[in-house]
Amino acid sequence: MRGAAVIGLALLPATVQVPASAADVQATKATTTAAAPAAVTARTSGSGSYRYWAFWERKGKDGNAAWSYATQGPSVLRPEDGAVLGFRFALSEDSKDAEKPRGEAEFAAVCGGTEAERGRKRIALAIDFGTPAHAPRGESPPRRRTTCAQVDEDATAADALADVAKPLRYNSDALLCAIDGYPERGCGEQIESGDDDKGTGQDDTPEDNGAGAEDDAGDDSSNGFGSATGVAAGLAAVAALSFATVRRSRRRG
C-alpha cells in the first residue's frame, strides 16, 4: 500500500511553470527565478485540481498549427518574431491535462495590422480567462482575447505579456497569479473536488479582438475534473495490485 501511495503522489503536479517578469517584480527576485521557474509544490492532503495560469506555445504552420505546453517559463523563453503564445486560466491536475487556450490564433490574423520595426519583434498572444466553472467564487472571467505585443528583440514571453495585459499580479515567490487583474484573489491554490468555489457568468464567453469564429467548446467539457476520474481509477488498480502482492508475500513468509 505504501507503494500505491507514493505512485499517487507522483501523479500530482510537482511544479507549475509560471515565473515572473522583471517588468512587474523586483529585479532581484526576477533574477533569482530566471534560471529555474517559480513553482507550486503539490499538496498531499486530499485530491483535487490546481487553479492557475498555464503557458502554451503554438507550433506548426498553415493548417497544422497546434498548442503545445511550454517547456520553459515565460520569463525564460525568448520567442522570435512571429511567435504565437497562449495563457489559459483553468483547473487541472498536471501539465498533461492542462486546458489549452480555446480556438485558433494565427500570427497573421493577430499581428497583421502591426508593422514590423527595426530592433523589435511582434508576438501574438492568446489570453483565455477560462470559464465560470474554473473561476474563484464571486468572480466572472473576462472575454478571452488575442492581441499583438511589440517588444524589444531580447524580450521574454513575460515581457510581451506585461506589454499588453497589465496589471499582472505575482505572489511572494514570483508566481504569476493574475493577468489583466484576473483573478482578483488566489494563486495556484488546490481545489478539492467537492468545493463549491465557482464564479459567475456564461460558460462560453465570446472572444474579444479575435480573429474570427472559433469553437468555444474547447476543452471545457470536463470542467477540469475529467482527469481526476482517470487518476482515481489508476490509483485504485495500483492499490489492488499492491494489496495482492502484500498478501502473497505474507503467505510465503
Automatic annotation (TrEMBL):
Residues 129-148, 186-228 are annotated as: Disordered. Keywords: Membrane, Signal, Transmembrane, Transmembrane helix. Residues 1-22 form the signal peptide. The chain crosses the membrane at residues 225-246. This is Secreted protein. It comes from Streptomyces bathyalis.
